[in-house]
């Protein structure tokens, strides 16, 4: 089976939903690739909120944006994604069209600093509450690294417990379905 890019798949899904003027969240900024993608979709009148606990991630993303002219569309916040609701203005709750998560560790960074299962589950609960109708949450999960198996299992269980009257969940694998294969969980809120 041919390997597919889960990042590109997530971007393709979001391109169909996110438009200029919309609000989006990158719950795990990392090196800013998804953050920049989101800003390109919502510019010039929309806004992206980016969260990461690591100063290196915030700094790397800020530098990436300096070169684009899209900084007016961006707010970066160095806190856990679990605390995003308190940093998103109340009037934007239920108006966020896309929320991206890319779990694991900061590429090129300290691999001992990883997303934590408890904070990720809290962040997903928050994300599901502030997501707009017809919005989408994409979540890239990576079993196979220390902590990744547990987080992937728990996130999958969380998704499977969502109210099917409000949410639709699908899973895309990077290769054939294997327990250690990276996967993209797509959570849509069509109702």
What does this structure look like?
Helix 3 links the parallel strand 2 and strand 3. 33% of the residues lie in helices and 23% in strands. Helix 1 (6-15) packs parallel to helix 2 (33-42) and helix 5 (117-130) packs parallel to helix 6 (148-160). With 191 residues, it is an alpha/beta fold. It is globular and about 40 Å long.
Question: Main traits of this protein?
Answer:
single chain, alpha/beta, seven-stranded mixed beta sheet, 23% strand, globular
β-strand percent reads 15-25%
- Major beta sheet, strand line-up: 3-2-1-4-5-7-6
Q: Biggest β-sheet: count, sense, barrel?
A: 7 strands, mixed
Stretches where pLDDT is under 50 for at least 5 consecutive residues are none
Radius of gyration: 15 Å
The arrangement of helices and strands along the chain is HEHEHEHEHEHEE
**Outline, from the CA principal axes?**
globular
| Intertermini distance | 34 Å
**Average pLDDT taken over every residue:** 89
Number of strands: 7
Roughly what percent helix? Answer: 25-40%
Structural class by helix and strand composition: alpha/beta
The total count of helices amounts to 6
């Amino acid at each position: 089976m041919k390997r597919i890019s889960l990042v590109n798949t997530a971007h393709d899904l979001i391109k169909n939903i996110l438009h200029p003027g919309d609000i989006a969240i990158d719950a795990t900024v990392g090196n800013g690739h998804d953050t920049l993608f989101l800003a390109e979709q919502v510019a010039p009148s929309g806004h992206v909120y980016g969260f990461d606990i690591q100063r290196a991630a915030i700094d790397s993303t800020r530098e990436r944006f300096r070169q684009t002219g899209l900084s007016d569309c961006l707010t970066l916040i160095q806190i856990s994604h679990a605390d995003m609701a308190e940093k998103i203005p109340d009037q934007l709750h239920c108006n966020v069209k896309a929320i991206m998560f890319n779990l694991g560790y900061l590429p090129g960074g300290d691999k001992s600093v990883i997303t934590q299962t408890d904070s990720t589950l809290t962040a997903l609960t928050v994300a599901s509450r502030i997501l707009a109708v017809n919005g989408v949450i994409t979540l890239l999960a990576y079993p196979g690294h220390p902590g990744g198996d547990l987080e992937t299992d728990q996130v999958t269980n969380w998704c499977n417990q969502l109210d099917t009257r409000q949410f639709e969940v699908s899973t895309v694998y990077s290769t054939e379905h294997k327990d250690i294969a990276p996967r993209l969980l797509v959570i849509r809120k069509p109702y």
